Amino acid sequence: MGHPSIFEHIEKNRSGVARRKNRSAVTLMVAVCLSMTVIVIWEAWSSRQYHLHDKEVAMSNLAQTLASQAQSSIKQADTLLFGLVDRLENEGVGPGQLDRLQRLLSAQRNELSQIHGLFVYDENGRWIVNSNGAEVGGANNSDREYFIYHRDHPDLGPHIGPSIKSRSSGEWIMTVSRRVNHPDGRFAGVALATIYLNHFLQLYDSIDMGDNGVINLIADDASIIVRRPFNEADIGTSLAKSALFTRLLPTAGSGTASTSSIIDDVERVIGYRRVEGYPLIVFAALDKAEVLAGWRRQSLLSAGVVLLLLGFSGVLGYRLIKLMKQQDLARIELLGTQDKLLELNRNLELLALEDALTGLANRRQFDLFIHSEMGRARRNETGLALLMIDVDHFKAFNDQYGHLAGDECLRSISAIIIDNIKRPGDLAARFGGEEFAVVLPGTDYVGAFLVAENIRRAVEAADLEHSESPEGRVTVSVGVCGYNPALQAQTEDLIGAADKALYVAKTSGRNMSVIAN
Prior knowledge:
Strands 1, 2, 3, 4, 5 and 6 form a six-stranded antiparallel β-sheet that branches. Strands 8-7-11-10-9 form a five-stranded antiparallel β-sheet. The chain contains twelve helices and 16 strands. It is α+β, with helices and mostly antiparallel strands. α1 packs across α7 and α9 packs across α10. It catalyses: 2 GTP = 3',3'-c-di-GMP + 2 diphosphate.
């Protein structure tokens, strides 16, 4: 009689052992899967870092080579200028010297292929002599940046100006110039060498930079002198807010990094280096996505193989366990989500009629309110007025101070509007953007104009700084309209009349209140 109990005990032990074995097997499988996954991820990450480091080294070497090339090209031109200035200051520019000087400049220009031209201007910017044989006539370059710089700065060193289009040939050129002095040290003019931008572009275009690579020659003031790929609109663009000038150059004159471009927002692997002896920086960069394209293909292939091997051994069992857990979690989450949805519905009912930024009524509440008040005014033959308020030069304010400051400005003006409408029946709303509307039941256009002026003066008195406004502070313009049932059958008619008055206020100088005719 006792045997069945023994067998049951054995079966229970076997079941327990089986469960333990299953758990051990599952644990071992999970451990193997995790180990292989970690190894593959580590190898992929190491390979990625190697690819990036390799390209950073390549860009650093390229930047160094291009910096040497730029330094050599400019040095050759500057050496000519140094000798030319010495000749001018010692021998002058008398009639006897001009012919010899003309021949000398032409010969020197022909010796260097990168030189577009050599020029000499007197203290008033008039052409004295040039290497290109161009007719001097009444030509004057006193408005050029390099001329103004040397006229206003006594230093005798070379000056690299921004890239410009030549007035003699219409080609894009870089300017290298030196100041010429009278014997007493007064400004006597400028000696100028111009270098073809194409001299740099031909070299830059010969380098394989991929489909989206970039090479820049940049001035110390952060303006682009030449950029590959070449686009005239990029010449002179400021990179002062780029990572190169805000983060990298302040700490080192050369180096590598990964950063996004402020011109086209492409993330690139970059190398940069200052040009020795001149206020220039060479910047070479490869598209990071292109750099990692080969690594990505290799990593995806490795990951696919590993996933295939792991899939047959562990996915089915893992998914079953995971699905059971997900069902329990789903039930819990559904209950929690139900409570959250109920709470969200209550909040949405409150927010549906309120502007999130200012706390004023939103456009929907404004439309319902003015429609209701126009009907009441029509039935009871009572007054109704509408103010349309617009912040003056608000786009310029946003551009100067940023959108966060713009939001704070709108909140401040909203608070001022609320402070100046005291009656419970009045409604202030954000009509859209920087425009506000105030509905004044039981008020004619005279009373509405007084309210408008109170708001306008209060905004002016708040003295919110606005450097881009002629007033130097934030102001508003207000359009005022009293409701006339005979002329304004629809809400659009009343809004349109107030908006026209606002337009008159804006076009008449701003910072004023105007009553609709």
